[in-house]
Every structure is written in structure tokens, then in C-alpha cells.
Fold each of these.
Amino acid sequence: MDKKTKKKLEAAGWEVGDAQNFLELSDAEAAFIDMKLALAEDLRALRLERRLNQTQVARIVGSSQSRVAKMEAADPSVSIDLLIKSLLKLGAAREDVAGAVARQS
Amino acid sequence: MDKKTKKKLEAAGWEVGDAQNFLELSDAEAAFIDMKLALAEDLRALRLERRLNQTQVARIVGSSQSRVAKMEAADPSVSIDLLIKSLLKLGAAREDVAGAVARQS
DNA sequence: GGAACCTATGTCATATTCGACATATACTAG
DNA sequence: CTAGTATATGTCGAATATGACATAGGTTCC
């Protein structure tokens, strides 16, 4: 299994090691998870660009270091709402967010 | 107050008629609400394009008529996650979703 | 009139997401 | 080895979002 596929399954809340269920990812579900991964990648990229650590980002967006780590990992417990709000608070433009939404991760 | 401004405030969970707090909408908050409105508009547009009623959409996306109505109204109780999932299940492409995200509502 | 259809709004019990905290892991410098 | 710094992971109570249901409003047709 390649690295990206593994990431996607984990983002979907699956233990990788599970055998079956591969085909239960509908197109809509797959696209949704992929969007989340792209947004998470952008969040990390934006943070690094700004030379901030996760604790500083947490302060800016009103959250905690651990949640920022989970955002960047596209953890199943983080919503797209939270990712978008965080990106915007870090200064991303709507077009940037749209770029991630459209981009195949 | 124009119609769009009123809609935005309501989407943010405010009673229009409230006097103050006008300036507490940060840029990030305003952009977020606007995205939600754009997604909601697209959901309704897509439904009408497909000539479906809200009950049919509810069946397709796995929800209820009342929630679909709230989605289309960009009700404060609906998340962007739900809007995006619903759009995708109705057959929208990622680019379509990205279009709404970028579009000033 | 009222029956049939569609959409809007209010409420509720359950489910999911949240910030926070503790703790683990990893890397660097002294 | 230890201390300092950064990121990852697990858990929790509180907050928010969810589908479902009831019901209200609105339109069209007879």
C-alpha cells in the first residue's frame, strides 16, 4: 500500500491492517477525505511559511497544540470547518482554501 | 440593511434587530460565513437543476427534509462538512465545491 | 372550502467535535 | 546523560452538529 493511500484510510478513521472494506469508500467519501488531507497539508505549509510552531498557531486560532497537530494530521476528530477557520485565521485567502479543495492531494 | 447582509448575520446566528456587535465579524469569520452561504446556494441550485425536492435530496444524502431545508438556509446548526458531503453526494465535482468556496456570495 | 404537495421552523436525544491536559516520542545542544 | 524544544497521541467533560419528528406556512388544483 502506498503512503498516500495509507494516509487516506487513516484519515477516514480506519486502522491500516484491516483487510477488507476497501471498496466501501464511495466517490463522495473519497473526495471528501482527500479535501481534508489537502487542507491539512496547506495548514502545515502555511505554518512553516510563517515560521511558527504549533503552539503559536494554537494561540492564533484559539485552540491547543494537540489539536493543531491533529489538524495537520487530518485526524478523524477534526472537521473541515475547523481546518478552514484555522487557515483563514492564519491569513489564507478564500482562493487559497479553494485551491486546496480542488487539488488532488 | 440589504438582503445579503441580513442573510449573513442570520447565518452567523444573530437575530437581526440586534443593534450592536456589528464590527465583531472579523475578516476570517466573515469569509467563513460567506463560504457557507455560497455552498448553501449551490446545494439549492444543484437540487433544482436535478429537479428534486428536499425530501428526495434527504434520501440521497442520508438525512431528513428539515435538515436539507436548514442546509439551504445556511442555518447556524449546519456545518460546512455537511454541506460539502451533501454536494458531493449529489454529484458535484470537487471543482464545483471549490468554486463556491472561492466565490463571493 | 380542503386535499395534496413542498418548504420552513422548533425541538429533542444521540453523536460528533471541541479545547484542554497529560504524556510520549523525537531531536538538539551542552 | 540531561535539559530544552517541538510534535504526536490518548483521554475527558463540555460544546456543537446531527437525523428525526411534529407542525406551521405557502401554493395549486378541484
Amino acid sequence: MGIAERRQREKDARIKHIQNCAAAVFYKKGYGETTMDEIAKTAELSKAAIYLYFKSKEDLYYSIIEPALSRLARRLIRIASDRREPAEATVRKIISATNELYEKDYDAYHLLSRYSAAEYVKLLPKAKLEHLKELMRSNLRQMEAAVRKGIAQGIFEAVDARLISVILWNCFMGVIQYQENRMEPGKTDYRKKTIDATVELILKGLRKL
Amino acid sequence: MGIAERRQREKDARIKHIQNCAAAVFYKKGYGETTMDEIAKTAELSKAAIYLYFKSKEDLYYSIIEPALSRLARRLIRIASDRREPAEATVRKIISATNELYEKDYDAYHLLSRYSAAEYVKLLPKAKLEHLKELMRSNLRQMEAAVRKGIAQGIFEAVDARLISVILWNCFMGVIQYQENRMEPGKTDYRKKTIDATVELILKGLRKL
Amino acid sequence: MGIAERRQREKDARIKHIQNCAAAVFYKKGYGETTMDEIAKTAELSKAAIYLYFKSKEDLYYSIIEPALSRLARRLIRIASDRREPAEATVRKIISATNELYEKDYDAYHLLSRYSAAEYVKLLPKAKLEHLKELMRSNLRQMEAAVRKGIAQGIFEAVDARLISVILWNCFMGVIQYQENRMEPGKTDYRKKTIDATVELILKGLRKL
Amino acid sequence: MGIAERRQREKDARIKHIQNCAAAVFYKKGYGETTMDEIAKTAELSKAAIYLYFKSKEDLYYSIIEPALSRLARRLIRIASDRREPAEATVRKIISATNELYEKDYDAYHLLSRYSAAEYVKLLPKAKLEHLKELMRSNLRQMEAAVRKGIAQGIFEAVDARLISVILWNCFMGVIQYQENRMEPGKTDYRKKTIDATVELILKGLRKL
DNA sequence: AATGAATGAGATTTCATTCAT
DNA sequence: AATGAATGAAATCTCATTCAT
């Protein structure tokens, strides 16, 4: 069995390798500007080899996005399910978990931070698109639940929970985008620090005085 | 001279028309996925006609982005230059001015809200890219100045002004992105309300207690 | 209107030109072996130009086959509808009409004579394939009707009309195939003569003694 | 020696197996549309394994066609060489022998019935193509000889022997094509019955009254 | 000023064939 | 003997751009 297992491991590794290379290029250029040629070159494989593992450019793209987003969604659901934990801790955990994707699944995370439903409309088949959207909505719902919990716990002011969750989520994504795209390369990555500061700022704004 | 003037006005109108149509498509699909064919069809003109007014796809794109961003930058500089105005008012004005672009220059605004330096690297010639980046940086500096002023005025806590300006800016952009891309179509546009709520939340977080 | 009309005429001519060139290549090589490049070269156009008029290789192919077959089907229906004409004359007319396609629509005819449902299964969308098949079946039905009429008229022996119509049709197609494919090039084209002789032979075999 | 022999037998069996599978696919799809992948999958072997036994796609194809056609040619020569046998019997035997290929070498037969010189021109090297053509011509000559014999025997009318042999051959091939390609799947295979009826019809037409 | 027609360059995808194991 | 992996070459198709009218 050793051989078959090793084969499978190697295959998995190659798939992961291609996905990593592809994600890097997709991220740098955007889907439309990315060519299979460049992905192949980055992965040091022939174009045809890519097609051994993914049946189309779109398939490759989706194979990067979906699992990462799916994993995150599951994780957030678990985090938000703790009804007793103080709301502030839950909010921080949600943000942390999302941010952790960064270290573990750097490339998928990158793509996610660039997620733009409009662009995908023409790109992905309807079912896949809807699936991604549902995952995004689920993430938002977990944040909303956390804010609602905070109000119920008497910690937060009686704000519009949905609105606040959108704000939190957007601030988070905004920071990522900003740090990734707008800053000069070479500069220190302030992401973690900026995100933490943002969260604390907003939590402070939410607290009952 | 009346005739020449009318001609010029008509020409300007046609240029604006093309830009509006193009911006709508660029926004919906992203630069790479947008075809000149679709722009032409949207503008109800022939492709060749577009080329009478813009010398390339990139040129057309830039002609939409740059003036809007440039105008905004000038406006923010003027707003931030008032050294005496209370900082909170200045922050609100900066955000408002940015948001107002929305009503006046809907499509350019859209494109701006999607601004992604990385994508532009391959798209725009270096000089143009640098120009856009400088405009963005300028906008950020105005916000930074406003926060710094608030600290000087003793209104805000002694926070990292740069960090806070980044946060504010990102939250703003994040909200826009979210509202544009992630929500189901048909839903009410919560943008203004969300942005205002975000700003107030953050201002509250900034205030000395 | 002169200009618009001329334009349309020219466009029609170009479409016909492309179809003719394509049919010649399709015929010579078969669908699979034919490349758009070769069609373009034959038509003295760029590949892209072909795609201005036909949206895919398959579309181009179908646009050649279908109208010719459709026209023939209509014609055979008209011929077979004469209930009083002696059956032998009807049979001869059906064969003649089919053969005449040769002179008028040389290339489409060629493709038809090569028609092979099996090959098309993967090629054409189901609806188109079914349409072609129905046309073929219609043609066969007309021949069957003619044979049946001959029996009713007491001219032909009481044979299996369907079987005989299949035979007649096959002989006809067989002769075409043979003459087209199996003979050395440069040899005289015996098609017409061979077909006529075949029909007479079979009619003689059918007649009541 | 037993071992070596068994090895050889096994090898032959594997070769035959591949040929059978390949022939089925070639027949269903045509040469151009057939992929080595599909052949391999049908044969439940790896693509590379196919190349252990055949040095190219074309080689595999030819290896199916040629022996079958060659065997048939030899058989028809033998059949036609009987100068004394009544011509009608000889004609029937020729047709039968050809038809028998069906049961014994189903797949090669299929391919033969689709034989199209034009397609092969680009496919096969000149020598191989010429060889196939010569085999086909030989078969035709045997039929021609049989018809000529019938005239000499005073059984047939003084027809153009070559023409009639072409007709007979074509009818035969036409019936096969028809039955294979044009009929709805699932229907009874009328081939044998149709062919016999065709031959009898033509013989009747040939006979002196 | 405007357009229909055309195209070169390049994109995605396929496939016969080879090679290391 | 057999195979999984890999690839070069070529196929279909797209698109920004130009040109004749």
C-alpha cells in the first residue's frame, strides 16, 4: 500500500502546489488578466499538466476559493454557537479566525479578500456562485449573532445588529484590501495591528457607557 | 462661433456618454472581463466610434478614473485645510465629500471603490499608475491630518493618527464594497445610512471619555 | 436604400462564399480533420472573419447541411404528393431531384452524401441532430410512398415498400459515395449514368412480369 | 516452449482485444473524433500500454482495416475463380462472403463500410493508402468478373459489366451504411434481409427475360 | 462623424505521444 | 508488461484595434 499512498500524497501535493501558484497569480492579476500560461510557468509545469488536475480555468479558481471559504464558514458557526461567552470575546474570535486564514491559507485568503460577486456572475455557473454567496452570508450572520448577543447581555448599546455586523465585516475586509493593495510594496505589514485596533475602536464605540 | 461651441458641447456630451456607459460595464465586469464590444453596445455606438474619442481601452478607463479621483483629492485638500474647524466635523465632511461623488459621478465612484493597485500594475503605464497612487495617498493624508487635528484639539484620544485614518478610510471603502458586491440584488441600498453609522461609531470610539 | 441593399447582398455573398469553401474542406477531410485555419485560408479570410458570420465550427457546418437537406425534403414531399402520376415516374423524379442538388448545391450535397448519424451524435446538439434525422426520415418516407403507390397502381409486385425504399435510397447514396470516394481522381464522373442505370435496373426488378 | 507459446498467445489476444475496442470507438466516432484516451478507457488499459503494441494511432487503425480487407480480397478472388459456377450463385457468394465478415470481424467490417478514401489521404502514408485502394479495386474486379461470366453464360442481359458491378457493390455498401447509421437505435437489424432482397432484386433486373 | 468589415495576436483547451518508474 | 505523469503542438475561439467607405 506504501506505493499507492505515496502516489496519492504526491498527487495531493502537486494539486496543492498548482493551487498555490494559481492563487498567487490570480491574486496579483485578477481572474481575467490571469493566463493559464502564466500559472503554468509559475508552477513550472506545462499548461497541459494543469489540465490533468483541473478541468478548466474556472474550475481551478473555484477549487481555491471554495474550500477556504467553506472551512471559514464552518469555523465561524462553531465560534458563534457559544451562547454564554461574552459578546466581545466572540467578536474578537470571529475576526481572529478570519485573520488566521491568512497565515494558513495565504493565497485563498488573498482571493477572498478580493471577492467581488459582480465579477463572478459571468465567471461561475449559477449554482457555484450561489454557494459562495451563501457562505459569505453565513459568515455575516455569525457576526450578527455575536452583536445581538452583546445587546442581550447588556454590554452593547441597542444598535442595529445587522448594520453593525456589516460595519465590522466591512472594516475588516477594508483593512485587508487597503493593506494589500494600496500601500507601497516593501512597507511593513500593519494588517494585524490595524485590524486589532479597528476592532477595539469599534467595540469601544459599541459599549454602553 | 455659436456653431463651433455647440459642436464642442455635443462632442463633450458624447465623450461623457461613452465614459458613463463604459464605467458601468467596467464596474459590472471588471476591466479584464469588459470588452469594447459590450461598451459599444451599451453606448449604442460602433466600436470604431469609441476609438474616435479614446485611443485605447486603457485610455478610456483612465479617463474615467483619473478626473474623478483628482477632483476628489482637490476637494479633500480644501476641506482639510481648515485648521480651526472641529476635527469631528472635518472627518464627517471628508467622508461626505467622498460619498457625494456617488451621486454626482456614480460610475467613476464605482470604479474607484474597486480600485486595486495590483491589478493596475500591468494595466497602466507606470506614470499614470504612480499618479493615481499619489492621489490616493493624498486623500489618506487629509484624513490623517483631520485625526491629528482632533488630537491637538483635545477631542480625540492620543491615538496613532495614521492608523486611525487608515481605519476610517478602509471602513468607508469596505462599506461601499460590501453594499455593492455582496448583498443580494434588489435589496435597499443601505450605503449612506451604513456609512454614517460607521463614522459615528468610530468617532465615538475616538472621543476622550 | 441602394447602399443598405448592396451591403446586404455583399454580406450574403460572403456568407455563401465561406460556406462553399468550408463545405469543400469539410467534404475533403471530414468534420474532425477540418481546421478553421484551413477553411479561413481557403476562403482567403482570417479565422476571426469566419467567426463574424458563424458562431462556431459546428454552427458553420450545420448552416451548410441543414438548408440543403431541408430544401430537398420539401421538394421530395411535393413530388411524392402527386397521387395520380405513375409510380415509376415518381421514383425517377425523386432520384433526379436528389441528384440535381449536385449541380445546384455541390458542396452541401457532398456533405450530405457523407452523412453519418453516428458521427454527428457528439457533434451537434440534440435538437439539431434530431431535426436532421427527421429530414432524412421524411425523404425516405416519400420514396416509400412512391413504391407503395406503384403497388397500388398494379405496376409493382407486392413487395415490402419500406424495404424497397431503403434499397433504392441506399443504392443511390452508395453510388454517390463510390463515385466520389473510391475511384481514382481524374477519371470521368460516371455518377449520373450509374445512377440512372441503377434506377432502371431496380425498376425492372420491381415490375410485375 | 510451452511458456513462450502461451506468452505469444496472450500477447496476440491482447492485441486483438485492443483492436476490437479501438475499432468500436473508431466506428462510433470516426477516426478524427476518436481519442487514444477513449480507446484506452474502452480497452481498460493505460494509454501508454496501447503504445506498447501499436506505434501510433494511425498504425492501430491500419492494423484493423488492412487484414480484414486483405482476407476478404483473397476470399473473393477464390470465389470468383470458379469459371463454371452459374454467375448468379457467384454473385450471391461474393455478397455473402462480404456480409460474413460482419459476424466474424464485426468491428473491422464496420470500419470498412465507412471506408472513405478522401479522408484517408491525409491520414495514411501513400503506400498504405494505395494498398487499401488496390484491395478495394480487386474486390470490385471479382464482382465484375462474375457479372461478365453471367453474360457469357447467357443468363444476364448484355449489360455494362463494370457498371453493374459498381451498382451491386454500392447497393451493398449503401444498405450497410443505412442500417448502421440512419435507423433509430434499438430497431431490429434488417441488414441481412435487406441485402438479400437487394441482391435478388438486382439479379432479377439483370436476367434475360 | 460614424460604421461594418477585417485581422493579428493571443487566450483556453485538447490530444497523440513519450518517459520514469 | 504496464502505468501515471507530463508535454509540445495544434485546435477552437476571442478581442482590441484598424481601415475603407
